[in-house]
Amino acid sequence: xxxxxxxxxxxxxxxxxxxxxxxxxxxxxxxxxxxxxxxxxxxxxxxxxxxxxxxxxxxxxxxxxxxxxxxxxxxxxxxxxxxxxxxxxxxxxxxxxxxxxxxxxxxxxxxxxxxxxxxxxxxxxxxxxxxxxxxxxxxxxxxxxxxxxxxxxxxxxxxxxxxxxxxxxxxxxxxxxxxxxxxxxxxxxxxxxxxxxxxxxxxxxxxxxxxxxxxxxxxxxxxxxxxxxxxxxxxxxxxxxxxxxxxxxxxxxxx
Length: 255
Description:
- The strands form four sheets. Strands 1, 3, 6, 14, 15 and 16 form a six-stranded antiparallel sheet that branches.
- By secondary structure, this protein is α+β, with helices and mostly antiparallel strands.
- The mean pLDDT is 93.
- It contains four helices and 16 strands.
- Helix content is 16%, strand content 35%.
- The chain folds into two domains: 95 residues, Immunoglobulin-like, CATH 2.60.40; 145 residues, Roll (C8orf32 fold), CATH 3.10.620.
- It is globular, with a radius of gyration of 19 Å.
């Protein structure tokens, strides 16, 4: 992954572009190269973040190369418990958010998915979103929410993820947004998928159908895309170049 930032004055940037550490993905090798400014890595919640502080106007170039072993077992069907029995710590993932107005989509979700006890509910919701939407680059923007996506019937990966999250939350299933690297994503870029809790564990699902959970490398998680921007300029004017992302399979690992 490669990108550039041009600071017009003193400023700070937070970058969520590096792979996270977890039980189901192990970072085997990592090389962070940043030229033009000092940087550090910090934990922000569960996410690893690169912090760049520019003391003067300057241009920053960044490269990130990693090899990650993904050891994520495929999810097995199970009956999802009612929201009443959801652990309180997962309650935050049931609340409507900026791009996921699950309260507005509740009538739709209840009409489409009538069997709340279906052990394949998560996969059926994923398939429904994939069938319902058409992947059209440029068909949405940074302000598009899930209800707008449903009306237009098109979008990109973040729109697919927002719609699925909204539908699941409307059904009482904790769901959150996950930014990832994934092989098979076209065009190559940061990829957005869904993480849903089945009452036992979190499960990754890709409503675009481009990737499988066993190959995804998670970068960051949040309520929706507003929580996980790959670059956030916290202070000072800066111009950010579009990132160049390349993901490929290396044996049993994803790089």
